[in-house]
User: Fold 5'-nucleotidase from Amphiprion ocellaris.
Amino acid sequence: MIPELSNPSVCMRDPQRVQEILQSMVKAGSNTLQVISDFDMTLTRFAYNGKRCPTCHNILDNSKLISSDCKEQLKELLNTYYPIEIDSTRSVEEKLPLMVEWWTKAHELLVQQKIKKDMLEVAVRESEAMLREGNQLFFNHLYEHSIPLLIFSAGIGDILEEVIRQAGVFHSNVKVFSNYMDFDETGLLKAFKGELIHIYNKREGALLNTGHFQELRTRPNVLLMGDSLGDLTMADGVQDMENILKIGYLNDKVEERKQSYLDSYDIVLVEDETLEVPNAVLLYLTGNK
Assistant:
């Protein structure tokens, strides 16, 4: 049905089920569709030429806006908490307070850096952040078909928006739920706004933003894209959902995580740095077969 689903990077536990969901969504029409996606390592590349690409937080951490002392402290936090985040022997309940502790400490360090709002543009421009190959087609096609794209990120919203703005794809159909910086009247970072969004509470974030999903009541069909199991809850705020097709990027630690991804996502993309498969699905759903 969609030739790209035979790509070598594609794994599906139940191809028949995927076909059924796709057929049901095609029948309903693209005006019933909304896309909900994670950002870092989902819409952006995981690696390029063998080198890891930066996340929203990394863009800031690696920039000239941060002192070497602060970089050192952020690195220590990473070395302490990241092994906990990816430790498959610990439960989410166990990890949760430690993750919140990590992100809270990191945000406090950033606030001490007296970051100026107008410097973010330069930090992004000088960074090695890259959207995945095929991003122009992805963003432009959604915009041309008036399909809402919700980007849901535990990163930093101000940086995320700058990345897509600089790529020329920050269209009016794009909405972002993320952690936003709060600047004082002189443009200095003084805090982060609102509740912390992290990889384990995207469900709560989705449910807090009921207004957004209320507006999209007439779009009960969802294409969800993520790269972690925490991303699966991003659509929990969708009202009266009819169909959901979940595409998951499995970027690293493939062997140990593959089964859990196959059990949770409909389509798993293994070490795939492109948007080729999501684009093929979108073209199919919008009648460009």
Summary: The two ends are 9 Å apart (CA to CA). The chain has a mean pLDDT of 92. Residues 67 and 108 are 14 Å apart (CA to CA).
